[in-house]
Amino acid sequence: MAEEMTEFEERVMAELENVTDPELGIDIVNLGLVYGVDVDEESNVKITMTLTAMGCPLAETIVSDIRYSLKDLQEFGEISEIDVDIVWTPPWTKDKMSRYAKIALGVPD
């Protein structure tokens, strides 16, 4: 049961659509890797996400790309701190992918 996102959390999520998984060439949102975006009262942003595989060698690249994608919001004072929390529960499966990502990668629906 997902809570409704605030307008600002939706803006953060939209920026995360600019972060592409380097191996798959699809953004992390459509891949279903982003489990949540939370913004607290001090404008700190916590992104809870997973990766397609444990031990992914590109984890640091993806985290760096996330920080870069949110750079403008941070520079304009809309975001204070950015915390990226990589979790393994629930595990990622192809079912979490959007229809767009499945079509792009040729994954059956």
TrEMBL record:
In terms of superkingdom, the source organism counts as Bacteria
MIP18 family-like domain mapped to chain residues: 9-77
UniProt-listed InterPro entries: Fe-S_Maturation_MIP18, FSCA_dom_sf, MIP18-like
Q: What Pfam families does the record tag this protein with? A: FeS_assembly_P
Provide the protein name. Metal-sulfur cluster biosynthetic enzyme
Organism this protein belongs to: Salibacterium halotolerans
Organism placement in taxonomy = Bacteria, Bacillati, Bacillota, Bacilli, Bacillales
